[in-house]
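Anyone else keep sequences and structure tokens together like this?

Example one:
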Amino acid sequence: MRTFLGIRVWKTAVAAVAAMYIANGADLSYPLSAGLLAVLGVDVTRKRGIVSATQRFVASVVGLLIGTALFLLFGFQTWVIGLFILLAYPLLARVKLKDGIITSSVIVLHVFTEGRVHMEILLNEIVLLVIGLGCATIVNMIYMPGAEDRLADMRVRTEMLFSAIFQAFARHLRNPHTMWDGMEYSDAAAAVERGLALATRADENSLFRHEQYWQVYFHMRRTQLESIGRMMGMVAQIYDKLPQAVLTAQVFEELSEDVKADVYTGRAEAELKELEAVFRAMALPATREEFELRSAVLQLCVELRTYLETAKREKKGRESLKST
């Protein structure tokens, strides 16, 4: 019951009841339809609510004009409703007003029920639209639940999963016989996508400023996750213990802590530079097997540098967004 009775259900109920009371108080015909229009007009974010109400209003007015013209030309015959559907629905869909198809149908059916076209019924329908969609828009604007806490929680979850992935990499590099099912990777992907959806919703609830901080953050994590996916394949190629792999494991262990920092620390990048210098000073591989293993470690370090460059660029960008 708690899941079903979400905030949108409560807002829909308030908007519908308010619209019907107002329509009744204004002595309009078909006052219950104002409640239906309010139900259709309530949306999940403020921006979507405004766009939806505008589209429904315009579509209903266009539909009312088309329906009125058809009734004047062919009379109030049942088959004219079919003709209205054949003409109006494709037109509204073509001009990107398909969300208003239902509301326009309700309005036109009112005129059809009256059996004649007169100014009073046309004004009645316009006022019904204003009351129903207006109540929905006002309720949408008054309250929208904040997403900041959920975004912060999703960030913590994402960073913990990234940290667990890097720790798994480090364990494998130290002991290639270590088993890992990769569950943290799929969980991290789900967390990033959930965070992006929440960030988009938070931005759509902010009418006068763009909430870009969280979108930048989760887009960064999505890009980094693609890099991590490539690194997973490279780590899997390291099937035997190697000094270079053990040294690389230290970088991933450092990264497992750095990934939780809000700012770019640069510690993992510094360790990677030192590691690359150590690699260059080492003797060349003595066997083909050692060559293949060291090549896999080198490719892993190159991909790791790409990951760190993304983190460096995006985290600095987020710092500037946060300061503004």
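And example two:
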Amino acid sequence: MDALSDVLDSLKFKGVVYQKILFTAPWGVAIAQDQYSQFWRLLKGTCYVRIPGEEMIKMNEGDFVLVPHGAAHRILGHPDNVSVPAAQYVKALQCGQPLFRGDDEETLLIGGHFEFTSPILHPFVAALPKVIRINTHQNEIRLWLEQAAAFMNDELKANKAGNQLILARLAEVVFILIIRAYIEQGDVAHGFLRAFKNPKISASLNAMHSAPEKDWTLSQLASVAGMSRSLYCKEFKTLLEDTPLAYLTEWRILKARELLLENKENINEIAEKVGYRSEAAFNRLFKSKIGETPSSYRRRLLAGG
């Protein structure tokens, strides 16, 4: 499995798609901060997304916006519009008295959110910005995003058996496509995602992730990247702000934490799967990174601690 797929799979995220939302001008909704990553796609009209401390984003038809950390934000038909809390908007809708309905200019949105169910998240998640805008008209994966959104629209219209599961899976695909589009747009300044703009460094990451159990050396990783050892180390650290072997260690510990929770293999078997032939050495390293032994970590987490 390539490195990006491996990391995204480790997040164990699930998606939820809301019903299509129709507004007529003037309108504005304020979404409170929460633990989810929200996304919006503009189907019709124009709207604005405002997050405190960030530059206002103007969405055009087809655009996606992702709010990775669940930051409070407002969605507005015009920058000067007053907004109502989302809870108030939803309550009015449920009572059959929807707000912002009239004869003026219409705006149509699809929204949803992603929930990371794993207690163990790769550092790239924390490194994502407060908001990501994907302009589908200027992105190479425009057709993929448009088709995924079109399938969502069809499922919302049809309301057939199994559509909630289909929508959830489509939302998960959309998240992966947004991350891929974010990389391709070139907005990533540094870190794990930035490395995928460099085919040589990404080749070494793919090697680490496909075989974390291998006893990798700097020379071997540099060879995979097709670079000298010194240039490889310099380029890797410039992009990921970490050395290759330090990153490999962090990934192995993350994978070990995941394995400790997901299966009943003994500690020695898990140690071998993540590249450690000595259980004692693995225990020492794990405790130095996590603050407790693998067995203690497993007992605590499985007990709900």
